[in-house]
């Protein structure tokens, strides 16, 4: 039986334009891909080839071709090839706010383990994990997101498609999110956020993490990093992009970039969009 053609050996990442609080990528890595990092989105993935290995919640996970990955917001993880052959995968990053819009104030579903064979979750992931150049229509994306949210809720203790309401102030957390999104390019004081939401800072911090999976400051930092990546792809220097995105300086930005994405901004610029021609 003839062997399949060898996969490309140079690292690359293809990225679709972010839309509606989602981002899709397809990537190939040989060896180590990402250092330990965490982001404020769900990371829903599918291994396409090779063995995709990562450390997650105090253990090593090995995802084989066809497996579905579900990484919870703000959970540290890394990424590397499990064998010498390298690995190829697709990933979609889903803001918890989209899941909250569907579940309406429930605690975010948390799936242990990072890898699942749940058929409902796999089907929803299949609809979301199309090629980065494929057109995903708004209604198609909305249907897939609803399917994913309900499948995650059912797999993590929900009854049918409904879960018990969480104990917290969802509306205050939502006001905080909107305020932070509108003011991400500057420093936001705690008393300012309290005034905008009508909630004391400690209760608000608890509520925000319950409903959006991260802290208010991490959410603010992620919005700055989103802006930064757009500026870098538009051709700005690292220093200018860091300043325009709201970071204190380039060093401040680089520390947060590495902690969030597992690679430096310079390395990210090297691999982004460099997939071989088909």
From TrEMBL:
InterPro entries in the record: AraC-bd, AraC_XylS_family_regulators, Homeodomain-like_sf, HTH-like, HTH_AraC
Keyword check for Heme: no
Superkingdom in the source lineage: Bacteria
Domain HTH araC/xylS-type: 174-271
Keywords linked to the UniProt accession: DNA-binding, Transcription, Transcription regulation
GO MF: DNA-binding transcription factor activity; sequence-specific DNA binding
SMART domains associated with the record: HTH_ARAC
Family matches, as PANTHER family: HTH-TYPE TRANSCRIPTIONAL ACTIVATOR RHAS-RELATED, TRANSCRIPTIONAL REGULATORY PROTEIN
Protein's name in the database: AraC family transcriptional regulator
Naturally occurring in which organism (per UniProt): Comamonas piscis
């Amino acid at each position: 039986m003839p062997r399949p053609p060898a996969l490309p050996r140079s690292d690359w990442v293809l990225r679709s334009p972010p839309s509606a609080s989602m981002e899709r990528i397809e990537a190939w890595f040989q060896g180590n891909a990402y250092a330990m990092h965490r982001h404020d989105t769900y990371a829903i993935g599918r291994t396409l080839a090779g063995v995709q290995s990562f450390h997650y919640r105090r253990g090593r996970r090995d995802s084989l071709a066809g497996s579905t990955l579900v990484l919870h917001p703000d959970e540290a993880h890394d990424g590397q090839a499990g064998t010498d052959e390298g690995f190829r995968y697709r990933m979609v990053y889903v803001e918890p706010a989209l899941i909250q819009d569907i579940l309406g104030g429930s605690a975010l579903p948390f799936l242990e383990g990072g890898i699942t064979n749940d058929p409902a979750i796999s089907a929803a992931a299949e609809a979301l994990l199309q090629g980065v150049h494929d057109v995903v229509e708004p209604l198609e994306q909305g249907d897939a997101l609803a399917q994913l949210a309900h499948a995650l809720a059912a797999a993590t203790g929900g009854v049918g498609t409904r879960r018990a309401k969480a104990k917290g102030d969802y509306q205050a957390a939502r006001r905080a999110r909107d305020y932070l999104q509108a003011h991400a390019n500057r420093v936001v004081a705690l008393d300012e956020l309290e005034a905008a939401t009508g909630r004391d800072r400690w209760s608000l911090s608890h509520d925000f993490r319950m409903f959006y999976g991260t802290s208010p400051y991490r959410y603010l930092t992620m919005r700055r990093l989103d802006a930064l990546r757009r500026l870098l792809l538009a051709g700005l220097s690292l220093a200018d992009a860091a300043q325009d995105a709201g970071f204190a300086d380039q060093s401040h930005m680089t520390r947060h970039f590495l902690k969030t994405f597992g690679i430096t901004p310079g390395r990210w610029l090297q691999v982004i969009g460099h997939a071989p021609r088909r």
